[in-house]
Design a protein that fits this description.
The complex is a heterodimer of chains A (99) and B (467). By secondary structure, chain A is an alpha+beta fold. Chain A contains 2 helices and 4 strands. In chain B, 60% of the residues are buried. With 467 residues, chain B is an alpha/beta fold. The model of chain B has no long low-confidence stretch (mean pLDDT 96). In chain B, the strands form 3 sheets. Chain B has a 7-stranded mixed β-sheet with strand order 1-2-10-7-8-9-13, sandwiched between helices. Chain B has a 4-stranded parallel β-sheet with strand order 5-4-3-6, sandwiched between helices. Classes of the chains: A alpha+beta (99), B alpha/beta (467). At the A-B interface, strand 2 and helix 2 of A face helix 5, strand 4, helix 8, strand 5 and helix 9 of B.
Chain lengths: 99, 467
């Protein structure tokens, strides 16, 4: 059970595939327009429940509860060996062979 | 009575919502035909250069350093014909409070919103502008909502956009994240209507005029340090605001620098495609925005865009994704400057353009942007590889956006490639006629000559070929 007042993330479908704008390409028209937002949970709930939240601007938004205390996991990615090749090449051109 | 909130009903209320949320009656500047009075719009709804400087400098925006890239210039000269290789400079706009030149646009928009009594601002952007508005809203005590296109239908977020969401939240904004699609605008309108907040559009006169200080500073800093204006100014081009504002600022300084726009070539990728969304490694500064906005500016979220880049650019060049990534790494390794890749689009172009110029000439890139997790060459390349994009060394001319990223096997292979501006000018004229469905008046023809940075004869010839 996630308590009222906890900081949570919700998910919601804004437009179903049938409601999408006529100009969108086919692959986009086959999927819904989805939304994610964060806020304070307005009543006790479980993950997967339909809930109301109050966002940081004081707006009320509804959606499916998907995460409590959401956090970011983006990072600096996996090692890209090509970058070291570039480094070696340009330093040699500008500063010489490093001997 | 409750208003209907389905897609068509909301889009039908667009004009009414816009008028309330921007506070500009655009009809005052219309001629009733193709032409509208652009300069009057900029004069009556914007701010003077001095007012903008005061607004921006009071919140720590602007007065960013100009950096000379001496080692990069050395590398240019190793690749250039004898006697060629202009000195390369960059305006370090990453030093602005939110880490990009967008702080200039946001400072003016948020100041204006506050002056008009709005309690908050809403902006639709997946770019650096979101953090810029969030930062300015924070300092002005206004609420802020940023609406961004972030995920594909698998729920996979572009790392660069995820980072921008984090930054907006860190600066106090509510970030409404959406999956791929132009109907983002529908949610944006709903939010404006629900909150009654100001539309901090990228394309209002005050937003664009905010960039004029950038061009003006470039001229003043160059004159003070080097005794002359830069010979060439290169701007990364997406929606056209950077090019337009920088050019207008340079003109206000009386500078006659040549202006060149640069975009990352994403030809063949559809910007509204769910499947292709995460196949591109640049979320801004690319041809997917740059080309359509230059050839028809009035496709933005306001009735008349103040960003009209075709009026100002003398050349428009593209560079490949692999070239921008390469130059981003070179900037770190040779100059000790780690910057976000998208802002280095113009730098990759400048590296090539400098080789056409004499050694006593100067070329400046108008911006840098901040870097961090997600918004950095390594996570972008790593993400591309995870999404099936092949990354290898070769000749970037062979790069196919969405399929591969070709890092130049030697820096001499970095080549800015010219966009056909004559074609683009004709395209703008054609779209104008098809949009307004009128017989162009003399006023329209003069207007179109200004819009396309051409002349009355060129417009008349183009009109003949349409018929």
């Amino acid at each position: 059970m996630i308590k009222k007042g906890e900081w949570v993330r919700i998910h919601k479908t804004i437009l179903t595939p049938a409601e999408r704008a006529p100009q969108v390409p086919e692959d986009t028209r086959n999927v819904p327009l989805e939304m994610w937002d964060k806020g304070f949970l307005q009543s006790d709930a479980n993950i997967g429940d339909e809930v109301r939240i109050e966002t940081v601007t004081g707006r009320m938004e509804t959606g499916t509860l998907i995460e409590v205390n959401p956090y970011y996991e983006h990072n600096f990615g996996k090692f890209v060996p090509e970058l070291l090749v570039i480094d070696k090449q340009v330093t040699e051109i500008v500063f010489g062979g490093g001997k | 009575m409750m208003k209907a909130n389905d897609y068509n009903s909301v889009m039908a209320r667009k004009a009414e919502i816009m008028l309330k949320s921007v506070g500009i009656d655009y009809s005052k500047f219309e001629s009733g035909s193709i032409a509208f009075d652009y300069e009057k719009m900029m004069r009556e709804t914007g701010y003077s250069l001095e007012e903008m400087q005061n607004i921006q400098y009071s919140v720590g925006v602007g007065n960013t350093p100009v950096l000379e890239l001496k080692n990069l210039t050395e590398l240019v000269r190793k690749c250039a014909p004898a006697g060629k290789g202009a000195r390369i400079f960059m305006k370090d706009e990453a030093s602005n409070p939110s880490g990009s030149f967008k702080a200039r646009r946001a400072a003016n928009s948020v100041y204006h919103a506050k002056r008009l009594g709005f309690k908050g601002v809403v902006t639709a952007t997946s770019g650096n502008y979101g953090a810029a508005v969030a930062s300015q809203a924070a300092i002005n005590g206004l609420k802020c909502i940023v609406v961004q296109e972030c995920y594909d239908s698998r729920g996979v977020g572009q790392p660069e956009i995820v980072e921008k969401a984090r930054k907006c939240e860190a600066l106090g904004a509510e970030v409404v994240q959406l999956s791929v699609g132009p109907e983002l605008f529908y949610k944006f309108l709903l939010l404006l209507e629900e909150t009654g907040y100001f539309n901090a559009s990228l394309y209002t006169p005050f937003g664009i005029a905010g960039v004029e200080t950038l061009g003006y500073e470039i001229s003043m800093q160059f004159r003070e340090k080097y005794g002359k204006d830069p010979d060439v100014v290169v701007c990364t081009n997406a929606g056209g605001g950077n090019m337009t504002g920088t050019a207008r600022g340079l003109m206000k300084a009386g500078a006659s620098s040549r202006l060149i726009a640069a975009s990352v070539n994403l030809a063949g990728l559809h910007m509204a495609s769910d499947g292709q969304f995460n196949k591109k490694s640049f979320t801004t500064g690319h041809t997917g925005f740059g080309m359509p906005f230059a050839s028809w500016p009035d496709r933005s979220d306001v009735p008349r865009s103040a960003a009209r880049p075709l009026r100002y650019m003398e050349r428009y060049v593209t560079v490949a994704q692999g070239e921008v990534f390469y130059i981003t790494e070179v900037l770190a390794r040779l100059e000790g400057l780690e910057k976000g890749p998208a802002g280095n689009t113009a730098l990759a172009a400048a590296f090539s353009l400098a080789q056409e110029m004499d050694q006593d000439q100067t070329i400046i890139v108008s911006e840098t942007e901040y870097t961090g997790a997600g918004k950095h060459i390594q996570p972008q390349l790593s993400f591309a590889r995870d999404n099936g994009i092949k990354i290898f060394f070769g000749d970037p001319v062979d790069e196919v956006p969405g399929k591969n990223i070709i890092l130049p096997s030697h820096p001499s292979l970095i080549k800015a490639r010219d966009v056909d501006l004559v074609h683009m000018r004709k395209s703008l004229i054609k779209t104008a006629v098809n949009t307004y469905k009128v017989e162009p008046t003399e006023e329209d023809i003069a207007f179109l000559a200004e819009e396309t940075n051409s002349c009355v004869e060129f417009v008349k010839d183009a009109l003949k070929s349409i018929k």
